[in-house]
Amino acid sequence: MTAAQPKASHHINGQYREDASGRSFESIYPATGEVNARLHSATPAVIEQAVAAAKAAQPAWARLKGVERGRILLRTAQILRERNEEISRIETLDTGKAIQETLVADAASAADALEYFGGLAGAITGEHVDLGGDFVYTRREPLGICAGIGAWNYPVQIAAWKSAPALACGNAFIFKPSEVTPLTALMLAEAFKDAGLPDGLFNVVQGFGDVGAVLASHPDIAKVSLTGSVPTGAKVLAAAAQTIKAVTMELGGKSPILVFDDADIESAIGGAMLGNFYSTGQICSNGTRVFVQRGVHDRFLERLKTRTEAIRLGDPLDPDTHLGPMVSKAQRDKVLGYIETGKSEGARLVTGGGVPEMQGFEKGAWIQPTVFAGVTDEMTIAREEIFGPVMSVLSFDDEDEVIGRANDTQFGLAAGVFTADLTRAHRVIAKLDAGTTWINTYNLTPVEAPFGGVKQSGIGRENSRAAIEHYTRLKSVYVATGPVDSPY
Ligand code: NDP
């Protein structure tokens, strides 16, 4: 077993909690198949403890001045930065992602969110509306208890992207990580505790989908924010409907990257590679349909193949390794199935497509970064979210054609355009059905920018000032300045 066993499965009311009667499960190091830790899913009693703790703590937290709440979030961010190496190591053990990535993109991104919303906490205000004597003012009030349900690709980042705005706004928070990656949310709970967050305001309950379902339908929980797949999103929405909860849904995608003839080709290739292979392809906003204009198509493919074959797979804990394994063998096998479907439907395999030989890591969930060319719009690999390192390259002739094809999907999470023509860049971006877009880069998600999808990719936005609206409710207060004018 690797040295990653937490003190207990859950973190409730500022304390580690165990309830061994819950279904047991393991965190596995995907590079070797070794067990990182053994945990238990939350029983109904554990979930009720978390809800009770949150309920007891939230009113006093909401009464604090925003800057006082913000100060604690800022301290938490500082602690995460001090513990970055330790958290990154555990994140690598839990997810298999290369330490080169986790050191910069996981706890660091969580700290960014805590700093941003910590700074914003004192600036959450309503407005004043003058009615020529009488007036209305609005109050931005917290919702109460908010729940977060996370996917396995960015465990600590997802926990912080949701809890930082929720806490800044005066809510209490209960987080359920994916059972595949349960570890670092507990480390975030420790950081909150050490930063002085009052007990009960940030709770972690472990478990499977059934635990998420209890949170999504719980009458005392005012809001649920999910990061997950579209089918899970539909279930959580249905569960939330029972008590008319507020929801934020960060769901899957099949996003397009458009590369025009005049683009800086090396940058476009770099963007497409980052947008398909980073985190071994397990990123919701990945640009998995790469449309390349006919004039540069062959040169693009040739350089893409060379650069893809230079990617270093290896020991995830070695800082020189670019890519680790996928999160699990089940997920890897699902992706291999898509690769077989791609071949059988007539796509041309340019590189990758199989399981690499990894000396010393024979039991890991490895997969080669894979590029298909000659992909057409109807192929399964161009329509379904694969969630692995599989890039589909499609060719196109003109702007209107490619916009129509890019939008022909039920998803709408992200999109990117590579071109040297600025007027075209803005014109095309405006016509793409996507919530998060880039011009001449891909997959950068700073906390300052709203993040989220349209169509079946989601509801609501994370990050930026926009997140404040999703963790507060607006009360309007009409104030009369004279006598009531009544006919009765
Ligand atoms: P899933 O949809 O399988 O699971 C997401 C979370 O929901 C998990 O914690 C899961 O628990 C839980 N869950 C499952 N069923 C239910 C239910 N009925 N009620 C409540 N909760 C439930 O997603 P993955 O973990 O497989 O993550 C990959 C997906 O997430 C991809 O589709 C990806 O695009 C999307 N994603 C979206 C992002 C975004 O911001 N838009 C970012 C990252 C990923 P359990 O793990 O036990 O099944």
UniProtKB/TrEMBL annotation:
Binds 2 potassium ions per subunit. SUPFAM superfamilies: ALDH-like (SSF53720). NAD(+) binds at residues 150-152, 176-179, 252, 284, 385. The active site is at 162 (charge relay system), 250 (proton acceptor), 250, 284 (nucleophile), 462 (charge relay system). Keywords: Metal-binding, NAD, NADP, Oxidation, Oxidoreductase, Potassium. The keyword Lyase does not apply. Its cofactor is K(+). Its EC number is 1.2.1.8. The modification Cysteine sulfenic acid (-SOH) is found at residue 284. Involved in the biosynthesis of the osmoprotectant glycine betaine. Catalyzes the irreversible oxidation of betaine aldehyde to the corresponding acid. This is Betaine aldehyde dehydrogenase. It comes from Hoeflea alexandrii.
